[in-house]
Amino acid sequence: GSNVETFLALGARVVAVEPRGECVSRLRRRWGSSSRVTIVAAAAGARTGRAMLHLSTSEQVATLSPGFLRAYPGGDGLAWSSSAEVPVVTLADLAREHGDPVFCKVDAEGWDEEVLAGLGRLPRALCFESLGRLPEVTEACVRLLARRGEAVFNYRVSDQPSFERTEWVGPGEIVKLLVARPSRPAHADVFVRFPG
């Protein structure tokens, strides 16, 4: 939900998927009357159903991923406070209901591979989160997307305004940059284009 304003400024119609009740309420207060914003009170995943969302004391951090809980057990201001069962939709479900997306931004705290596994038709581009403590998730996302179609990758570190690479790279190179090297970034947004 934190990127709604940016996408609207670009002229986009936005489908915001948010599983946390208090965040959904805030989104509805801010954007509920906009004809260009649809708010879906659910998590995204590989298949439709229900799942356990683990909530933290930070409004910005919640996850469906057991791996994320192990990698980020708490500390540095983060504590896991409770959990709640939430509905889960797939990106393919959302596309059937709202139309095929041009761009998807996935930020699912270690659950990104599951979200991308629920993708129907490929958008022109997408973005997913890479976490230094979960390199296996980054690699799995890259491999999944490379199997789906010709894909090129770039990344930016911790919400910096520009890409780290001047040229887009293939799946093997992005894995080297974000997974294989010991000095991998703690957090990066991985952008993917499907030029075919």
Task: Describe what you observe in this structure.
This protein has 196 residues and is an alpha/beta fold. Helix content is 31%, strand content 27%. The protein has seven helices and ten strands. The protein has helices at residues 4-9, 21-31, 66-71, 91-98, 112-117, 135-148, 171-180; strands spanning 14-17, 37-40, 43-44, 49-56, 62-63, 80-89, 103-105, 125-131, 152-157, 187-193. A four-stranded mixed beta sheet has the order 3-6-4-5. It has a four-stranded mixed beta sheet with strand order 7-8-10-9, with helices on one face. Strand 1 (14-17), helix 2 (21-31) and strand 2 (37-40) form a beta-alpha-beta unit. Helix 6 (135-148) runs antiparallel to helix 7. The chain is globular, with a radius of gyration of 16 Å. The mean pLDDT is 94.
Annotate the secondary structure layout.
Elements: H1 4-9, E1 14-17, H2 21-31, E2 37-40, E3 43-44, E4 49-56, E5 62-63, H3 66-71, E6 80-89, H4 91-98, E7 103-105, H5 112-117, E8 125-131, H6 135-148, E9 152-157, H7 171-180, E10 187-193
Parallel strand pairs: 1-2, 3-6, 7-8
Antiparallel strand pairs: 4-5, 4-6, 8-10, 9-10
Order of helices and strands: HEHEEEEHEHEHEHEHE
Question: How confident overall, as mean pLDDT?
Answer: 94
Overall body shape: globular
Helix content: 25-40%
DSSP strand tally: 10
The helix/strand class is alpha/beta
Report the biggest beta sheet as strand number plus sense, adding barrel if it closes. Answer: 4 strands, mixed
| Strands side by side in the biggest sheet | 3-6-4-5
Proportion of residues in β-strands: 25-35%
Q: Number of helix segments?
A: 7
| Cα Rg | 16 Å
End-to-end CA span:
29 Å
Low-confidence stretches: none
